[in-house]
Write a structure and sequence with these properties.
With about 140 residues, this protein is mainly alpha-helical. About 60% of the residues lie in helices and about 5% in strands. One of its GO terms (molecular function) is PDZ domain binding.
Length: about 140
Amino acid sequence: EPRSPCCCLAWGLLIATMNLLFFLLNLLLMLVIFTVVLLPTIVVVYFGFQCHSQVLHSSARYCKSILDDSSSSALIILGFVIMSPLIVVAMAIYCSLARRLRLLVCFQPYSLALYKGGRWCHRGDGGPCCARGCSTQLRAWV
């Protein structure tokens, strides 16, 4: 049966807040994984731009003794070339971790706010919450 308008609004706010928290958790996890995996690219491109004479032209000792303009350009090119495979690796790591933790199943439908009787339940295998009536075979992707 449908909920009252006030109760529907309160449940809708609760579900929206919970979905926002799960979204922020997914975003934080993705940010951490991409930062760690892309760190070599970030470092290589940073040193390439820092030591190039037409970009930043740092007066650091390693820029004067080790890196000239051609080696700085090579670092910049190398950084952008290795970025593509590392992005694929980072996305694969995030997807496998999100699948293992079942983070994408935690989002709740707004129909829980509209009708009484819908509640959260725990799966038998210790997985995250899901709406009543969810299949235990539910997957975020195949």
